[in-house]
């Protein structure tokens, strides 16, 4: 379904609290009183939030091209949007946010752009380390992390270790990630267990396969967003997204705002998620 972005698309400042107080509460009232949540969260049912939001962050390069800038500038601008959406998810109460940051196919881009992306990723991981920790956010990575440059891996490992005890939210970065590769990786691990006699072929179930995916410790995404106008998955969470609600917007990632994200959450809550099931009344059954 194509999602029409709101007209008010002004950029909002970074609202990450970088103070030294690690125990500050959210500014959303989740008590059972009758007070409405503060704007811009008004109209959102905090008891029916998506547990896992996944985003394909598309449009950085086109954003820069439209402004006659280097593509790298678009990626830098896109990192500001990452900060905004991470903070919004944390305040809202989303449990997991997965961002498609670098795909297995992205390695085929010009070497200069790949190098710039790796440098930007390294800077982002370092600069946001304390902010993530102070908000109680745990950093995770899925994908072929071993293919990333060593200095990038070291900083990722440092941030993952530093935030490992945080439980208020998980920021999950898909890096050198491909859905087909993930499934093939799982199949190889399962085949190895079968070969060693640790698993019988007739015991291989959907649950067994899910347990061998990179996302085995995470819930499947409830909501999948793609910015930039394209309407495809691009090899992202192919197994996990089978029952996700899809949202597509023409907005390029650097222009994607908290307001547009929250409007999508409101629409998500208006959708009827049946997971292939139909609730029949007694009258329905009596007619057949």
Oligomer: single chain
Can you write the helix and strand succession as a string?
EEHHEHHEHEHHEEHH
- Total count of strands: 7
- Helix percentage range: 25-40%
CATH class of the domain at 48-178 and 218-286: Alpha Beta
CATH domain fold name of the domain at 48-178 and 218-286: Undecaprenyl pyrophosphate synthetase
Task: Report on the architecture of this protein.
The longest helix is centred in the first third of the chain and has 22 residues, at 71-92. The relative contact order is 0.19. Strand 4 (137-142), helix 5 and strand 5 (169-177) form a beta-alpha-beta unit. The chain has nine helices and seven strands. The protein has a domain at 48-178 and 218-286: Undecaprenyl pyrophosphate synthetase (3-Layer(aba) Sandwich), CATH 3.40.1180. 36% of the residues lie in helices and 14% in strands.
Could you give a quick summary of the protein structure above?
This protein is an alpha/beta fold.
Which SSEs are present, and which pair or pack?
Blueprint: E1 2-3, E2 52-56, H1 60-66, H2 71-92, E3 96-103, H3 111-127, H4 129-134, E4 137-142, H5 150-162, E5 169-177, H6 179-195, H7 206-210, E6 223-226, E7 245-249, H8 258-270, H9 282-286
Parallel strand pairs: 1-7, 2-3, 2-6, 3-5, 4-5, 6-7
Helix pairs in contact: 1-2, 2-3, 3-5
Give structural attributes.
alpha/beta, Undecaprenyl pyrophosphate synthetase, single chain, seven-stranded parallel β-sheet, 288 residues
């Amino acid at each position: 379904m194509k999602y029409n972005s709101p007209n008010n698309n002004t950029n909002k400042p970074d609202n990450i609290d970088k103070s030294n107080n690690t125990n500050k509460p959210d500014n959303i009232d989740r008590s059972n009183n009758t007070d409405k949540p503060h704007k811009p969260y008004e109209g959102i049912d905090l008891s029916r939030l998506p547990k896992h939001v996944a985003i394909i962050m598309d449009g950085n390069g086109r954003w820069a091209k439209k402004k006659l800038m280097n593509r790298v500038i678009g990626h830098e601008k896109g990192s500001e949007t990452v900060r905004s959406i991470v903070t919004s998810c944390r305040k809202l109460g989303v449990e997991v946010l997965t961002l498609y940051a670098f795909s297995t196919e992205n390695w085929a881009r010009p070497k200069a752009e790949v190098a710039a992306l790796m440098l930007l990723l390294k800077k982002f991981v370092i600069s946001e380390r304390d902010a993530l920790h102070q908000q109680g956010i745990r950093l995770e990575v899925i994908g072929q992390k071993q293919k990333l440059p060593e200095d990038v891996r070291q900083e990722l490992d440092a941030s993952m270790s530093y935030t490992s005890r945080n439980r208020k939210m998980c920021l999950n970065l898909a890096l050198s990630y491909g859905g087909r590769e993930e499934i093939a990786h799982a199949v190889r691990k399962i085949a190895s267990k079968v070969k060693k006699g640790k698993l019988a072929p007739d015991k291989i179930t959907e649950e067994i396969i899910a347990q061998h995916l990179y996302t085995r410790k995470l819930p499947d995404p409830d909501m999948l967003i793609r910015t930039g106008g394209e309407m495809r998955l691009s090899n992202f969470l192919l197994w996990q997204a089978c029952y996700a609600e899809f949202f597509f917007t023409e907005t390029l990632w650097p222009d994607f705002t908290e307001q547009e994200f929250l409007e999508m959450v409101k629409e998500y809550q208006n959708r009827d998620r049946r997971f292939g099931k139909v609730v029949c009344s007694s009258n329905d059954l009596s007619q057949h």
